[in-house]
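Holo model, zinc ion. Inputs:
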Amino acid sequence: MRKTIIPAYGLTLALTMALSAAQAASLQEAAKALGVDGVKTLEFSGSGRWFQFGQAPNPNLPWPQFDVSSYLADINYDVPSARVQVTRKQTIEPGRLRPAPVEQKPDLYVSGAQAWNVAPPPNSPPGTAAVATPQPAAVEERLAEIWSTPQGFLKAAFANNAKSEAKGADVEVSFTVGGKYHYIGAINARNQLERVRTWIDNPVLGDTLVETSFGGYKDFGGVQFPARIARTQGGHPVLDLDIASVKLNPPVDITVPQIVASAPPQTVDVKKLADGVFYLTGGTHHSVAIEQRDHVVLVEAPLNEERSRALIGKIAELVPGKPIKYVVSSHLHFDHSGGLRAFADAGATIVTQELDKPYFEKAWAAPRTLNPDLLSKSQKAATFQTYGDKFVLNDGSRSIEIHKIAGSGHADDISLIYLPAEKILIEADVYTPAAPNAPRPTTPNPYSVNLYDNILRLKLDVDQIAALHGPGVVKLADLRAAIGQTTN
Ligand SMILES: [Zn+2]
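Output:
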């Protein structure tokens, strides 16, 4: 027997070439198994659980869970566009006081660079017609959901010159969509796509990992698809579905509504509640600017940097020459804290309940490569002022009290803001005044009942309530009426 001595580099080269062929084969085989070439549109439906991202009742808890009785996704990969219709109901955590769950039926769309929801306006009477509402902040997430389906990922892999490399027993496939969004998938030894990772921007978390895993591939009437889809976003589950049926190439024609294509820019409307106290509305989430002797205190920096820029511009008009020294955050929920970073960049101290500071510090240290914001560019260090139950901002002429709302089921960190001299109470999410023609709820909202209990406990003398959601400022009597407290 003749011995052949293979030089080390020769062996390495031979192995690399063999592996490359296998890797390429595995991407091709995975695509062949899923019939990717013949898939233009796809519909899948199932049931399971959905979790509300960014709405944990405590910074140390996962996103709250909803039971999903029906989930129907229609995708057109060519546009790309998608519609997702969900029927869901919140699962109440043991020991947490929440409103009785009502069935929600969100109807969610994305097409190209537009995203929108179709629903009756919030707090409208029953029977009100559904309208399309632009959701520009949801575009990234919804497109990521299209490319995080097995067929979608493999289509995108071919369209974007994916790279394959061996990772343990798997082949890792990676590519970048639109020069920006990075995707990494894992194909197992059976040529099945097991996992997709991608990142989207979030105003609180920065580059946010969205990880989707697939299990139990089987034939659904002529198309291979996983029987189970699970997704995490920002470190906690957001979706957990058992797939019941899949349709290959159903008609999926999604037209962008005119109202969405021409979405208006941010507007800030002003209502003066007292001398130097300005209620700032115009969008879905309101704020209150309070003029002190030599600075401004802003209550609430909601949504995102775009909203903050609009608020900063309006405050400079209302109170020229005074810096925004403090921004008070009602609670951590992302729709209420997404604009804070812009104010930290502007030099404001963030006043927040002590549960939130460690969360912000960790989240704000994450990379922000997808959408670098003002604070990531300036590299300024954010300053926090925390409190347990109570904090007072007083410049010698006006007092602004911040009280943690005891026992609120909505969030463990949620606080109310109270101006004793002006008898103004500011709160978010625990009491949203109804639209003028809306019927009174048959059951009082427990968050609002709890708010009223806190007003009594703290002996607050309240005249106006500047709610941070809803149609406008109301009186204490309106809160009392909403919870059925019409007499003493
Ligand atoms: Zn909230």
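The chain has two domains: 40-161+192-252, 265-482. The longest strand covers residues 206-219.
Archived with the compound record.
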